[in-house]
Amino acid sequence: MGKIFLVGNPCSGKKKLKNNLLDIVTILSRAGHEVTVYPTRDRGDATEVIKNLSDEYSVVVCVGGDGTLNEVITGMMHNKNKYYLAYIPAGTLNEWSSSLHISRNMLTAAEDIPKGKVITLDIGKFGDEFFTYTASFGAFTDVSYSTSQKVKNVLGHSAYILNGARSLSKIRSYHMTLEHDGETVEGDFLFGAVTNSMSVGGIIKLDESQVELNDGLFEVLLIRKPAKGGRLRHIMKGIVNRDFSNPAFEFFKTSKLVIHTEKCLDWTLDGEHAVVEGDTVEISNLNSAISFFVPSDK
Fold first, then answer.
1. How many domains does one find in the chain?
2. Which residues, 6+ apart, have CB-to-CB distance to 205 below 8 Å?
3. pLDDT value, residue 198
4. How far apart are CA 150 and CA 130, in angstroms?
């Protein structure tokens, strides 16, 4: 594996990195690797340090939540993607790690890295930005970034459920047109996600048989605004049962789509707030863009 650059967010999920850092470094060092540690200081810091990382390193280990992982991968994409990537989850949601069966126990995840196997994974490009597992808008999508870090640390996953339920009380729809593979989808939508994951926002789950993380395709899920007199319970039933055959849903796979929508629509990229300034955004799948360590038995 060579020299390891470990970048971590000391504030993620109950400040787990501070409590486990020495043990993590010991595990990686005993496996024969020289480890350099870089604790992030501000939002965007991980992107900048990885963007300018020296060629002397061959592996980047990210310790943190989904937002930190997004920053690290963004930095890698700007740095000609020269490194292997490993991930030790330390956040509250950790959606991508769940899809990859990476242990939520930080020390177990660290032990799995030296003996793990390397796979390739798709990365999403959203305009000039990147995302690892989802770009989404509408209901539920503000749950991640509107839930304070203190609340996440105290309540964990329950914080997302509570905020998700609260978001239902203020649902609004967004009119948009989506173009993909020679087809056009238009309508008023309560929610939309372009995803490469088994889960979105900790609330909406996809069946594992529907998702491949390195097939060059996104799973796109849209929820239409109910017709006058329509009931949200049909939508909630479909979400709970992972059944998107109801006309309220649009579900398809694509490698690229162009979305025309309202100006300044709020999106989230891997749970972090993003705004599209214009009325059009192009989203494309970068097939097998990164090399990623996963447990050898998964």
1. 2
2. 198, 199, 242
3. 81
4. 27
CATH number of the domain encompassing residue 148: 2.60.200.40
Instruction: Report CA-CA distances (Å) from 287 to 122, 129, 141, 292.
Output: 5, 16, 25, 13
Range of the domain at 60: 4-115
pLDDT tens readout for residues 251-286? 999 999 999 987 778 888 987 888 777 889 999 999
Mean pLDDT confidence for 159-180:
67
The answer to whether position 124 is within a domain reads no
pLDDT band, very low/low/confident/very high, at 14 (cuts 50, 70, 90)? low
In this predicted model, what pLDDT tens digit does every residue of 110-125 receive, in sequence order?
999 999 999 999 999 9
72, 109: one domain = yes
> For the whole prediction, is pTM greater than 0.90?
no
pLDDT at 169: 46
Of 65, 81, 115, the domain-final residue: 115
Do 186 and 234 lie in one domain? The reply is yes
Q: Is 62 in the same domain as 204?
A: no
Same domain, 110 and 140: no
